[in-house]
Amino acid sequence: MNEEMRLVRLTEDYVFKSFDCGEKDLNEFLLFDSKDYLKRLVSVTYIIETDERIVAFFSVSNDRVSIADSDKATWRKIKKLFPHTKHRSDYPAVKIGRLGVDIHYKGQHIGSDILSFLKRLFVTNNRTGCVFITVDALRNAVPFYMNNGFLLLDKSFAEDESKDTCPLYYDLFQLIH
């Protein structure tokens, strides 16, 4: 982020500025649903803005990575991250519910900067216990997340063209070691 951009947490009285990321669903979430999600305690939205417009936004909520959400090979890989006595049927995560960058700011690595910020935030300021970051990425966004270190949670989604989204995860513990 440059000096004229600032990060603000969405509040119920926030006045939206101009924003268009080119994805109707993401635009509508920010402008019409994000305050309701905040009020209903579903997710918290953060906005990167300048004085004139919204540059980007992201929403986060609690999640988990579980056996049911992954293929067997991926689950074995996840279990290997933990001592045998600590194996569970699920592990805590934070979910990126939505992430959008205004079309005027595309190509400036703002999305990657947001992911780096979230990775650092949940490693250095992990208030509730969180091992993974998850996202159900739109098909066209899967390469972006994978370029930022995310892995497929269930490889069958990548092969199933009928699915609109693909579940991915990022292992936060790797940042510690």
Could you give a short description of this structure?
By secondary structure, the protein is an alpha+beta fold.
Would you kindly provide a written description of the structure presented here, covering whatever features stand out?
The chain is of the alpha+beta class. It has one domain: Gcn5-related N-acetyltransferase (GNAT) (Aminopeptidase). 28% of the residues lie in helices and 29% in strands. The chain has helices at residues 24-39, 72-79, 110-124, 142-147, 155-159, and strands spanning 6-9, 44-49, 54-66, 90-101, 132-138, 151-152, 165-171. It has a 7-stranded mixed beta sheet with strand order 1-2-3-4-5-7-6, sandwiched between helices. The protein is globular and about 50 Å long. It starts with 5 loop residues before the first strand and ends in a 6-residue tail after the last strand. The mean pLDDT is 92.
- Count the domains: 1
What is the ordering of alpha helices and beta strands?
Answer: EHEEHEHEHEHE
Q: Please indicate the percent range of residues in DSSP E strands (runs of 2 or more).
A: 25-35%
CATH architectural name: 3-Layer(aba) Sandwich
Classify the fold: give the CATH topology.
Aminopeptidase
Please give the order of strands in the largest beta sheet. 1-2-3-4-5-7-6
Task: Please give the structural blueprint.
Blueprint: E1 6-9, H1 24-39, E2 44-49, E3 54-66, H2 72-79, E4 90-101, H3 110-124, E5 132-138, H4 142-147, E6 151-152, H5 155-159, E7 165-171
Parallel strand pairs: 4-5
Antiparallel strand pairs: 1-2, 2-3, 3-4, 5-7, 6-7
Descriptive terms for the model:
single chain; 177 residues; alpha+beta; Aminopeptidase; seven-stranded mixed β-sheet; 7 strands; 29% strand
